[in-house]
Amino acid sequence: MIDVLVIGGGNAALCAALMAREAGASVMLLEASPKAWRGGNSQHTRNLRCMHDAPQDVLVDAYPEEEYWQDLLKVTGGITNEQLARLVIRASSNCRDWMRKHGVHFQPPLSGALHVARTNAFFMGGGKALVNAYYRSAEKLGVQIRYNTPVQDIELEDGRFVAARVAEHTVNGTRCPAERIEAKACVLAAGGFESNREWLREAWGQNERGEWPSDNFLIRGTRFNNGVLLQRMIELGADQIGDPTQAHMVAIDARAPLYDGGICTRIDCVSLGIVVNKEGQRFYDEGEDFWPKRYAIWGRLVAQQPDQIGYSIIDSKSVGRFMPPVFPGQQANTLEGLADLLQLPRATFVDTVNRYNQACRPGQFNHTVLDDCATEGITPAKTHWARPLDTPPYYGYALRPGVTFTYLGLKTDETAAVRFDGQASPNLYVAGEMMAGNVLGKGYTAGVGMSIGTAFGRIAGHNAALASLGQPIVKSA
Amino acid sequence: MNSASQLIPLLNIDEAEVNRQLQICNACRYCEGFCAVFPAMTRRLEFNKADIHYLANLCHNCGACLHSCQYAPPHEFGVNIPQAMARVRLDTYGDFAWPARFGGLYKRNGTALALFSSLAVALFLVLTLVVNGTLFSSAVDGNFYTIFPHNTLVAMFGAVFGFSALALVIGVVKFWRTITPGGEPIEATDALVKTGGAVLTLKYLDGGHGEGCTNENDAYSMARRYFHHFTFYGFLLCFAATSVATLYHYLLNYAAPYPIMSVPVLLGIAGGIGLIIGPVGLLYLNIKRHPDHGDAAQRPMDRAFIVLLLLISLTGLLLLGMRATAAMPLLLALHLGTVMAFFLTMPYGKFAHGFYRSAALFKSFVEAKREGH
Questions:
Q1: Which residue of A207, A408, B93, B146 is surrounded by the most CB atoms within 10 Å?
Q2: How many other C-beta atoms are found inside a 10 Å radius of the C-beta of residue A358?
Q3: pLDDT band at B7 (very low <50, low <70, confident <90, very high)
């Protein structure tokens, strides 16, 4: 029997597998996807939010624990667990040497991401390069890796992990028989349920317009996070945490693929212009704060609009001032022409733009600070970077809610143990998106998902190894 | 600006594919740390024909971005930058070749190179038979000039080399003018120094992190960089050997054959060994290369060139070792034939890549300097 079974194949699972192997356990990792799609959502990530008290290689200045905690407190609106959050924050300050040892390379921020030079360490080549490095290291250390192995069920005995069950399935036309895999300890790191359309539908329900909003959501992340294991664990009585409608959700290009659109489908010009719904009306302050800080609320905002669609509108003054979008925008020389191309009601749209234009007060436009270009006398106001849309050609980008990952998860503690009726399991641990909701009740701040996955992946792997070897587990502070 | 220069040249299918992929890359930018291509990409919002050829030649086909790409196949975006760039590079070499009609030699370059080599070797075998009567010799003094007089060789090789060098220069100048239109002032010194450094160290085969580039899978290795160094410096040493010998001949009136412990022969031996280790390694890596790397249709071009270099060094070293035997005329004909084939195909084969790449590197350093990096 192997010592530690890791279920999942992304960052948290790999951190767990590597730590367990380093602690002397024999380890098997089960990845549901084929090799080409391995790594879950980690393949779409690009950085790690890191606490540091002084400049550190690629990180400038300092980002102390308290500031990190305050940032997290702000974005989650207090729906977080301070003890676990601080544990993640502290772990982010000293995990990078370990990551480097396993082949991860860091680099200074990418062009267009200089605003996080202080807080975030970027992976050279992005998250897929990190995932590749971890898999190479795991193979070298003798971790058994199995792709195309989706776990369907967990066997428990009084809160103790006994075995994982893989249903009969077919891989490239070859039948793989059902399997029961026993292990002395187990780490669950198989992601959220964002690509389970039915679950999303159930969670989001029907709105007052009779629509099923989630039917119009795009999934920015992996198509393999169907939440099978999460659902099963909840059925088996594991303590859960979080709201199933809470997720990392951004407004992305409506033409993005249904799954795995990743970073490039984002639309970064929201704060430079206005956003209207399909009725041609504005619905939120586009200039509330710097775009990276507001990026993660716009998915929900668009989800609340009729037909779950929005339209980011800019004029040619803004071209070149934001990260180039992956698909070209609709372009017209008149507002009427743009309304037609976007299939918006012409009169309302033109009226919305005109009223906005007239409300723009003169100011010193500066996109790098919270400038004094604001509107006066309209609702909703645009409080910064408000400049009239008056320089054709005009551009429009249709927006849809894009779900990166869901926050509903299993409740855990500082040992990363799965809990049943408030009691920690002696040999079952959880990491990554399956428990991120303990720290992230709502909202998001760039790079924190990888901080949580790395911190809890490492704790879970280490403790699973100790549990399997019959040693007392470690309580991280 | 006249109206002709305002026309935007249409993209061919290879260029359109690079354009499509770069729109995706420019919205992602995760690969910015790997090489010079992506920083150069971020300086642009759109990619015209000239930009595409510039960026394609800046790409060293290290493969790091392919293995790191969240949009690589099987993703529906199907991003494979090294492959798309490789296809455009072949268009560059063909389009800018001079005389233009010889650009077609890039279409089936492996065959072309094999044909040229065979013809050149055959030519020297026949010439040897004509002047010597036999491919073997009874005289064992190791003097090549008893078969082919020095001036004959100088005339033949000088003419071919001169033409090929001229053709290469014309091609690269045309390329430079296309990717750098308009008389923008260029601060060349700094960029030239950096280009020299990047070419001589193969900086962009280091993966950006110093661990090298990918080959058969996503692991990094310095093997390609080192084997390319063996090849490149081996070639330069051989070139130096010939140059020193030429100086001896004309300045010191000191004619070949030279003893083993002489500068030209020692340089030639060192270079020849480099030109065996390097091409053997590169050929091995090329055969083991991941099937998605680069353009599979260009493997014959790559391999034909590697094999030609190997034949030159093998025949050269054999000739040196057996110059005092009866096999000397045969080996001399084989060596001269392969060298002639190399000279003939310099502007119409893989050899040209270094010149176009150097021009693209120079441009990237000029751009970076202008941007203030």
A1: B93
A2: 12
A3: low
So what's the pLDDT on residue B149?
87
In angstroms, the Cα distances linking A126 to A132, A456, B221, B349 are 10, 21, 19, 35
CA distance B257 to chain A (A): 54
Contact B64 A132 (CB under 8 A): no
Q: Where in chain A is the domain with CATH 3.90.700.10?
A: 249-402
**In this model, does residue A432 exceed pLDDT 50?**
yes
Q: Give CA angle at B174 (B168, B178), nearest 5°.
A: 145
Residues of A in contact with B209 (CB under 8 A): 105, 124
DSSP secondary structure letter of residue B344: H
Range from A116-120, A193-197, B131-135 carrying the lowest mean pLDDT: B131-135
Cβ–Cβ gap B32/A110 under 8 Å: yes
Q: Please answer yes or no on whether B32 and A129 come within 8 Å at the CB atom.
A: no
Instruction: Calculate the alpha carbon distances from B50 to A141, A449, B10, B80 in Å.
Output: 47, 41, 11, 20
> How is residue A121 written in tokens?
């360490």
Structure tokens, A289: 């704060």
Q: Read off φ and ψ for residue B248, nearest 5 degrees.
A: -55, -45
CATH 3.40.50.1100 fits A2-192+227-241+407-468, yes or no: no
Please determine, for residue A416, whether its predicted confidence score (pLDDT) is greater than 60. yes
Measured in whole angstroms, how far is the alpha carbon of residue B18 from the centre of its chain? 22
- So what's the pLDDT on residue B6? 52
> Residues near A14 by Cβ (< 8 Å), separated by ≥ 6?
A29, A42, A131, A134, A135, A138, A457
Cα–Cα distance between A256 and B70 in angstroms, integer? Answer: 14
Query: Across the interface, do B34 and A263 touch by the CB < 8 Å criterion?
Result: no
Residue the block writes with tokens 């855990």:
A412
Which residue's structure tokens are 């641990």? Answer: A429
Q: What is the pLDDT of residues B145-178, one digit of tens each?
A: 888 888 889 999 999 999 999 999 999 999 999 9
Q: What is the CATH number of domain A249-402?
A: 3.90.700.10
Quick one: CA torsion of A249, A250, A256, A261, rounded to 10 degrees? -60
| Interface residues of chain B, partner chain A, Cβ below 8 Å | 23-24, 26-34, 39, 42, 45, 64-65, 67-71, 73-77, 208-209, 211, 218-219
Residue of A264, A268, A323, A397 to mutate for B, most B C-beta atoms under 10 A: A264
Give chain B positions within 8 Å (CB) of A136. Answer: 218-219
Lookup result for tokens 């779409």: A44
How far is A318 from chain B, CA to nearest CA, in Å? 13
What average pLDDT does range A338-364 have in this prediction? 97
Residue numbers in A near B211 (CB within 8 A): 105
CA A50: distance to chain centroid? 16
Gap between the terminal Cα atoms of chain B = 31
pLDDT digits (tens, 9 = 90+) for A46-65: 999 999 999 999 999 999 99
Q: What is the pLDDT of residues A154-169, one digit of tens each?
A: 999 999 999 999 999 9
Residue B2 scores a pLDDT above 50: no
Residues of B in contact with A110 (CB under 8 A): 29-30, 32
Q: Do A105 and B26 touch (CB under 8 A)?
A: no
CA distance B180 to chain A (A): 22
Per-residue model confidence (pLDDT) at position B5: 46
Separation between Cα atoms, residue A197 and residue B12, nearest integer Å: 41
Q: How far apart are CA A192 and CA B171, in angstroms?
A: 56
Return the SS3 of A346: helix
For chain B, the domains span 3-96, 105-351
Using an 8 Å CB-CB cutoff, list chain A residues near B68: 125-126, 128-129, 132
